[in-house]
Amino acid sequence: MNKENIRNLSFYCIYTRNHSESGTLQGVIDDLPRIARMGIDFIWLLPINPIGLTNRKGTLGSPYSINNFREINPEHGNLDDFRHLVSEIHRQGMRLMLDIVFRHTSHDCPWVKQHPEWYLRDDKGNPIAIVSEWTDILDLKFD
What we know:
The chain is α/β, with parallel strands linked by helices. It has helices at about 5, 15-20, 25-35, 80-90, 110-115, and strands at about 10-15, 40-45, 95-100, 105, 135-140. It is about 25% helix and about 15% strand. It is elongated, with a radius of gyration of 17 Å. Helix 3 packs parallel to helix 4 (about 80-90).
């Protein structure tokens, strides 16, 4: 893939929770033939990781308030379901792009206690989010 032809590729964005009635990775798999028939090149999958509970926004939480970057949200399925999804996407002639934001975590991400030095802090030493409305996340620092 080069810069000239990437502009001609089509992306289909999927938020697993809302994509199918089941809200699962299997629900996405079941819909792949239809998506492939539209000529889609990439499935762009919004975060599928477990969502933090502390300071959760609403009852379901934001998928960008990630508790663990190495796990699959059990509401969506498990690692085997994810592997099956990847396999089916490729079988249908498409590629997968995962939406992962490594800029912040949930308040109850284990890193908050294991690596407090990784987080931005206010004048009192409390971990913070840069955007004050994003009350469900804490920002990582990259210096």
